[in-house]
Amino acid sequence: MSTTGDSAQQISGAAESGKECADWQALLERTPYARHLGLEVQRDDAGLVVHMPCREALIGNFMLPALHGGVLGALIELTGRVAAQSQDTETRCPRILDSHINYLRSAQARSTFASAEIVRQGRRTSLVQVTCWQGEKSKPIASGQVQLLLPTMAAKQADLHEQ
Amino acid sequence: MTESNRVQHSDAVTTAWQFTEQVPHGRDLGMQVVSVNGNQVCMRLTPQPWMFAEDNTEEICTSVLYSLADSASGLAVFAEARELSPIATLDLRMDYLRSASGDRALLAVATCRHLTDEVAFIHCNILSEGNRELLATANATFMRNTQGQQFHAGGRGKESA
Q1: ipTM value of the model?
Q2: Taken in order B85, B89, B93, B95, is the CA torsion positive or negative?
Q3: Most-buried pick from A21, A62, A129, B43 (CB within 10 A)?
Q4: Does domain B3-149 have CATH number 3.20.20.220?
Q5: Residues B20, A68 contacting (CB under 8 angstroms)
Q6: Which positions in chain A touch B74 (Cβ < 8 Å)?
Q7: How distant is the Cα of B45 from the closest Cα of chain A, in angstroms?
């Protein structure tokens, strides 16, 4: 393959990943609470990453100081949801059924990042594993699993009947 | 609850109550402590449009319920322990049974199920005010006596400025 071919491929690859980034950002921004937290989508070597910039409203312990556990819960749930939603061809808004989060290290008052891995994407449900880190990605501060229900046509019709 | 009700609590519980209400994230969401009775804590949150899950719905984002459950559960550890040694959440599991409508306040009722010198197990229910149906349940495990500064009555110290 010629060098020109390589660079052409890189350019189209970059354009594609830029679009993926923008798609995730657009999905996140449909959620008022994600906008309130200031979540922004970035890309690192391994893929898409959701960045939560630090600000005072996210602090849970002002003595340490440390981020609130619920803020990490939000970062994990919203990252899990956008990952599941982006996999769905119809980008249906999934319903979070449950989430289980393990706190691994203290969360300092600084920028936090989250990446998602789809454990299983089924026809009706999606299970997503999310990892959060601050400085080094190899030292996660929290990890969680989020189970989501993708709305089916039957469920949508049932909702309409209820209304 | 009024000041006269608070006097019935031990100093440690009163301090933990005040501390919980001073937490910046709790203040941002408008969380309030309603009551502390024995090993049980009740907290309240009034939903705002920026807490919703989507622009075109009035459903509260699950993560807001998560934060409320985490805060109420932490306070329940201090309510049962009646002392202020620092704690850390080890894990928290939420089950979202029903979607939470934004037109009513949320209540979290957290109960300490078991306490040892090292750990505390908490169960928390989330409900809409005036409705008995559960919106979500949480189970949390806390580590006790973790490293970190103990907090003191009156609270924010240097950061209060």
Answers
A1: 0.87
A2: positive
A3: B43
A4: no
A5: no
A6: 69
A7: 14
